[in-house]
């Protein structure tokens, strides 16, 4: 089933919004430009930090004894991360000897999705039809259904229990003759299921908590009957079999194989003890810390297994590239959106004739996209020109190509315009 709403927007309101969007567009361009320059400088600093770290590192082949000759140096070493720590979650009867323990929580909820279609009207106004649909799915947080648009689904969500997701790290982890600091331990993640061994007393306590929550909901909803979406709502004083455990999962609900709204799924995973890890970090007596490069930026790296220093530095470089490109793409999209917003007033004014406003909007949208890309590449090139001039030259060539493309496009538009005799 779906639910639809229709809203009408007057020509004056659209023009007013276009004026406001012009200001918003300018701000997006300014913020995006600053952020692009920041991102490129961050990438450059990280690139130099990795290179400086690689230049100064030394191999530490033996970690069984704390060698004072390595103190204060950035080293690459490999060995076993060991701990006697027992990581536990008493609320669910979980206890493991490991480096990391994680509690994951999911809620079975209605989720609202929407799709809008706008129809332009002669005179500049428009009519927007929004269609709302509702699906059930497992989500990480309870969904606030009081904000749903369909009255039939309002307040339809609830949960049998509120459980916070949580993580634990072992505090005392040895690495040969050295101790691993928290920032390294937190990066040693190699998870496998952690068994749940819930006692009867713990299960009964959860049953009692669920009973209390359902009884509270009963008093609010008026007891037995059908809820807003036509589901049978039956509450009594006792809750039977609302707590199920299997393997690494605890399920709060009547039927784990057929989930209903309100059910909660809690699962556990952990990183076992005795993990082979490779580390690049600065030795500080019997432990490690981040290495500070010449540019005052810090570096360290941790990988599972016996990994060479060369491979670890290359992984760090590739990671820097990936992060840089993700941020670049997001910021370029923001800047393009800013240019589109600043040019949106003219198409809006011309929407008294929908086809005219749509045509001009398409042309300005294309031009804004190209200009946004040119603007972004320009600032990327400026940031890299002193470090990688070849990259800057390539970007300059791309910018020139895009400018030529705009000129050809504009000439094509001019030649298609009818002549006036």
What does this entry show, briefly?
The chain contains seven helices and 20 strands. With 421 residues, the protein is α+β, with helices and mostly antiparallel strands. It has two domains: 170 residues, no CATH class; 189 residues, no CATH class.
Comma- or semicolon-separated keywords:
421 residues, alpha+beta, nine-stranded antiparallel sheet
Domains (count): 2
Question: Helix fraction?
Answer: 40-55%
What fraction of the residues are assigned to beta strands by DSSP? 25-35%
Number of strands: 20
* Number of separate helices: 7
Overall spatial form = flat
Structural class: alpha+beta
Average predicted confidence as pLDDT: 86
Radius of gyration (Å): 30 Å
N→C terminal distance: 58 Å
Description:
This protein is of the alpha+beta class and 421 residues long. It has two domains: 2-62 and 308-416, no CATH class; 84-272, no CATH class. It contains seven helices and 20 strands. The protein has helices at 11-56, 182-185, 200-221, 309-342, 345-349, 354-384, 389-416; strands spanning 2-9, 58-59, 74-82, 86-89, 94-120, 126-139, 166-169, 174-175, 178-179, 192-193, 225-226, 232-233, 243-246, 249-252, 264-272, 275-284, 287-289, 291-292, 298-299, 301-304. Strands 1, 4, 5, 6, 7, 10, 13, 14 and 15 form a nine-stranded antiparallel beta sheet that branches. Strands 2, 3, 8, 9, 16, 17 and 20 form a seven-stranded mixed beta sheet that branches. Helix 1 (11-56) runs parallel beside helix 6 (354-384) and helix 4 (309-342) runs antiparallel to helix 6. The longest helix has 46 residues, at 11-56. The model is unreliable at 223-239 and 417-421 (pLDDT under 50).
């Amino acid at each position: 089933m779906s639910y639809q709403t229709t809203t009408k927007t007057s020509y004056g309101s659209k023009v007013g919004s276009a004026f406001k969007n012009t200001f918003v567009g300018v701000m997006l361009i300014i913020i995006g430009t600053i952020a692009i320059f920041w991102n490129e400088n961050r990438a450059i600093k990280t690139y130099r930090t990795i290179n400086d770290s690689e230049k100064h590192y030394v191999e530490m082949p033996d970690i069984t004894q704390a060698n004072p000759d390595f103190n204060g140096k950035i080293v690459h070493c490999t060995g076993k991360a060991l701990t006697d720590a027992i990581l536990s979650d008493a609320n669910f009867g979980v206890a493991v000897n490991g480096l990391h323990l994680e509690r994951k929580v999911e809620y079975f909820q209605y989720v609202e999705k929407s799709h809008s279609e706008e129809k332009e009207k002669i005179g500049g106004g428009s009519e927007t039809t929004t269609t709302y649909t509702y699906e059930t799915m497992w989500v990480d947080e309870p969904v606030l259904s009081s904000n749903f648009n369909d009255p039939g689904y309002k307040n339809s969500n609830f949960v049998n229990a509120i459980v916070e997701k949580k993580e634990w790290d072992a505090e005392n982890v040895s690495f040969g003759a050295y101790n691993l600091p928290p920032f390294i331990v937190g990066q040693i993640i190699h998870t496998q299921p952690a068994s749940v061994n819930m006692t009867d007393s713990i299960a009964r306590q959860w049953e009692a908590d669920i009973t209390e929550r359902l009884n509270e909901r009963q008093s609010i909803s008026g007891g037995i009957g059908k809820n807003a979406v036509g589901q049978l709502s039956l509450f009594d004083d006792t809750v039977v079999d609302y707590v199920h455990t299997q393997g690494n999962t605890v399920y709060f609900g009547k039927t784990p194989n057929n989930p209903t709204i309100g059910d909660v799924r809690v699962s556990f995973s952990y990183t076992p003890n005795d993990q082979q890890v490779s580390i690049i970090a600065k030795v500080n007596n019997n432990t490690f810390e981040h290495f500070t490069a010449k540019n005052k930026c810090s570096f360290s790296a941790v990988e599972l297994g016996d990994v060479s220093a060369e491979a670890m530095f290359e992984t760090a470089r590739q990671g820097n590239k990936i992060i840089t490109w993700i941020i670049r793409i997001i910021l370029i999209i923001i800047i393009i959106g800013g240019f589109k917003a600043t040019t949106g007033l003219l198409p809006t004014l011309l929407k008294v004739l929908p086809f005219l406003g749509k045509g001009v909007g398409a042309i300005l949208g294309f031009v804004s996209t190209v200009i946004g890309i040119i603007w972004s590449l320009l600032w990327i090139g400026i940031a890299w020109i002193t470090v990688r001039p070849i990259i800057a030259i390539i970007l300059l060539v791309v910018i020139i190509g895009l400018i030529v493309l705009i000129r050809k496009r504009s000439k094509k538009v001019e030649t298609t315009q009818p002549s006036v005799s």
